[in-house]
Amino acid sequence: MKLYSFESTLSPLPPFDFSQSLAFISNFGPMMNEQEVSENSFTKTVEIEGKTIVFEVTGIGNIENPKLHLTVSSENKLTEKIEKLVTDRISFFLSLKDDLKEFYKIANQDESFKPAVKRFYGHKQVKFLTPFEIACWAILAQRIPMAISHKMKERIVQKLGGHIQVKGIEFCAFPEAQKLAEVPLDNLLEMVPNRRKAEYLHGVAKAFSQVDEQWLTSGNYDEVYQWLTDIKGIGDWSAHFVMIRGLGRMEKLTNIEPQFALDVAKIYLRKSEPATDIEVCNLGEKYGKWIGYWAYYLRIYSEFAYVLEEVKKHQHE
Question: Could you tell me the residue range of the domain that residue 177 belongs to?
């Protein structure tokens, strides 16, 4: 089958460390085995307006002058509109337009936070590829092990997602909302053998097939959050998850989990019991619209520090 392709160069706002994006993509449980990752590139698939599109992103710059080479292929000739939608989707997925200089300017005045910035300098949040996918994952992952959730997600992709072969490798894309919304519930139950989850997925698909994604990413924060929680099956935790990891809405801290409160206490307050919600909010207040990035860096730095501690323990055993 002949593939139609186009190439482009993406210019992320500096600083940007593509190697950290690759490391995250390689190890992120909900996206395991959904892309090919090499030392300096990754290849992944997306569905846009009914077209199945595979894209390869390769790093060709450095942290302070970042450049990415993009190759996009499809079995269908793509219009200029879809080419732009693909490019915008990838840029959003990798958070290429996030201006970390503003964030770091505030962080440089925060002595307790400096080690996190030093370790993860240039790291931008990798989101789920589409907000609809993360909303579905939030439903699938509720109250069951990740391995089981991922198996259900794989069945949805195999049955409903677009498939395309590139260089002998088959890539599969998570289906768009409209496609899943049109699937009869009984058919969906074959992929997701849990009636409640299947019904929730139908509701999520119908909601996302009718909403303007631009409003989700740039509309009033509280109104978007309310829209999410109005969808059956999307509670406060799931809505927060979608806001941060699916929409890149970093301007508020709407859900303080116990583990995060404990991370804040260890890093800022040097105590073993969790910080209170008031303490967390007071410490993060100075970050303004970057408070979500502050929380994100604290979380991944705490995980990194924990791994280091475990390695040291084993070395001394």
Answer: 131-245
Residue 76 lies inside a defined structural domain of this protein: yes
Take residue 85 and report the two structure tokens written for it: 């939608």
In terms of domains, do 137 and 95 share one? no
Query: What CATH number corresponds to the domain at position 13?
Result: 3.30.310.20
Structure confidence by residue, pLDDT tens digits, 88-98: 999 999 999 99
pLDDT digits (tens, 9 = 90+) for 153-183: 999 999 999 999 988 889 999 999 999 999 9
For residues 147 and 239, membership in a common domain is answered with yes
Structural domain includes residue 125: no
- The three state secondary structure string of the chain is CCCEEEEEEECCCCCCCHHHHHHHHHHCHHHCCCCEECCCEEEEEEEECCEEEEEEEEECCCCCCCCEEEEEEECCCCCHHHHHHHHHHHHHHCCCCCCHHHHHHHHCCCCCCHHHHHHCCCCCCCCCCCHHHHHHHHHHCCCCCHHHHHHHHHHHHHHHCCEEEECCEEEECCCCHHHHHCCCHHHHHHHCCCHHHHHHHHHHHHHHHHCCHHHHHHCCHHHHHHHHHCCCCCCHHHHHHHHHHCCCCCCCCCCCCHHHHHHHHHHHHCCCCCCCHHHHHHHHHHHHHHHHHHHHHHHHHHHHHHHHHHHHHHHHC
pLDDT of residue 255: 85
Same domain, residue pair 21 and 113 = yes
Q: Looking at residue 206, what is its pLDDT?
A: 97
In a domain, 111, yes or no: yes
Residue 300 domain-assigned (yes or no):
yes
pLDDT reported for residue 305: 65
Q: Do residues 236 and 263 share a domain? A: no
